[in-house]
From TrEMBL:
Domain of life: Bacteria
InterPro entries: Sialidase, Sialidase_sf
Species per Swiss-Prot/TrEMBL record: Urbifossiella limnaea
Start and end residues of each stretch annotated as Disordered: 1-42
Domain Sialidase, first and last residues per copy: 216-414
Record-given protein name: BNR/Asp-box repeat protein
Length: 442
């Protein structure tokens, strides 16, 4: 999304996790556009004891707390349940003097151990406290990074070289890159096969309040993209599209978007649907009532044929949090869950929600208050209740963090990609944390 530059200073929160030295930070190798994470012992993790307390559990890479002695059952040792643990942190895109940011605005896709993520790449500039450290007068690129080994190494790609995903519109934090132009927008002719094994879709906005959005799609795992195809305004002043969709069939797809409110300001989440391969899109239902502030950037999973769960970034006044809504009728009507899934995200951050193969729901999000970082919560009952916060990282240098997208690998580990910086003045970069969500028994 077009993130907020104006911020509210926040004191260090209660229940801040104790700092454990992180390990396994990936460093760039000799190729400036390829980054490799090299932890001390591969993906080996010493399992950590979960602390049921007001503070989140900090999971430093390869740092561990004792799991406690085994109990006894039937005269023999009882296995210790496996809790969440971080395997490594890896740099996806990190270049001196550049700004990497906001994967949640672009999308993440996976085909087994091949993972593709989009992000913005600008130039670093100190704009003062509470402002994004990006140069608004220099080019902003929309890049992709691809991993073929489950997130351990990454190679950066520039789709604009082929005329695709070219930055445009008032939502940019920089200026459009020179020498490339976005292809003319078209009405989609339909015929998209959403079930194609190499399928990916990305939805892009031009502004957060007024103005249209467009989408691209790929059937070769994001190597080439067809589009841009215009999305309707659905009777609103503007639609701010980011990438959140669920495939429902060969010609059917649900798209979750943010529309302008009645006053023209950002924003209110809703569900749209195509049943003719992308040729037409129809409004399905609002996700909640129109908010006083905003309720934007949904991230959605399917719980059953018509059962959906979405996480929405919310703000009202100085309060920022994440709500979840559920639908039992394919997105037509939605009911707010109580209490909030994440009652405080500091200055605000969107969530990424994925359904794990064991049935649990995993929520990841940035935390824009001290200690700055990236956190997760897990649910064993379809998001009705959530376990304690898990601090994937608590070593951020400031508020320019988060905007994650997550995916589960074939081996069960989760790869969470986000933007980050290590010191207040440090360059903002794209990072990935590879972590084990545990076996669901803790």
């Amino acid at each position: 999304m077009l993130d907020r530059d104006a911020t509210v200073a926040r004191p260090r929160g209660r229940g801040s996790p104790a700092r454990i030295p992180p390990g396994g930070h990936g460093d760039p190798d000799s190729d400036p556009r390829r980054y490799v994470g090299t932890p001390t012992d591969g993906d080996k993790v010493i399992h950590m004891k979960r602390r049921e307390s007001l503070g989140p559990l900090l999971l430093g890479g390869l740092a561990a707390l004792a799991a406690g002695g085994p109990g006894c059952a039937g005269g023999g040792p009882r296995p210790t349940p496996a809790g969440p643990a971080v395997a490594r942190h890896v740099k996806v895109y990190a270049e001196a003097g550049r700004f990497g940011g906001w994967p949640a605005n672009h999308g993440l896709w996976a085909w087994g151990d091949e993972i593709l993520v989009g992000f913005s790449a600008g130039y670093a500039r100190d704009n003062g406290p509470g402002r994004h450290a990006i140069d608004h007068g220099r080019p902003e690129e929309h890049l992709l990074a691809r991993s073929k080994d489950g997130g351990a190494t990454w190679a950066v790609e520039n789709p604009a070289a082929g005329g695709a995903l070219v930055p445009a519109g008032k939502a940019l934090h920089g200026v459009p890159p020179p020498g490339v132009e976005e292809r003319p927008w078209r009405d989609c002719p339909g015929g998209i096969d959403f079930t194609h094994p190499g399928f990916a879709l990305t939805a892009r906005m031009t502004n957060t309040g007024s103005g249209p959005s467009r989408f691209y799609y790929s059937t070769d795992r994001g190597k080439t993209w067809d589009g841009p195809f215009r999305l309707p305004l659905f009777g609103r002043m503007g639609v701010a599209a980011r990438t959140d969709y669920l495939v429902a069939g060969k010609s059917e797809c649900l798209l979750f978007l943010t529309a302008a409110k009645a006053d023209g300001r950002e924003g209110r989440a809703f569900c749209a649907r195509t049943a003719d391969g992308g040729r037409t899109w129809e409004f399905v239902g609002w996700i909640g009532a129109e908010p006083a502030g905003y309720a934007i950037m949904p991230s959605t999973v399917r719980l059953g044929p018509d059962r959906l769960l979405t996480a929405v970034r919310c703000r009202e006044g100085e309060r920022n949090w994440i709500d979840t809504y559920r639908s039992e009728d394919g997105g037509k009507t939605w009911v707010l869950d109580q209490p909030a899934a994440v009652p405080d995200t500091g200055e605000g951050n969107p969530a990424s929600m994925v359904r794990l193969r064991d049935g649990r729901v995993c929520l990841t999000y940035g935390h824009r208050a001290e200690p700055f970082g990236v956190r997760a919560r897990l649910s064993r009952d379809d998001g009705r209740t959530w376990g304690p916060e898990v601090a994937l990282r608590s070593d951020g240098g400031g508020r320019d963090v988060g905007y994650p997208r997550s995916v589960q690998r074939p081996d069960g580990k989760v790869v969470t990609v986000y933007y980050f910086h290590d010191t207040p003045a440090g360059d903002r970069y794209i990072a990935a944390t590879i972590w084990d969500p545990g076996d669901g028994t803790r």
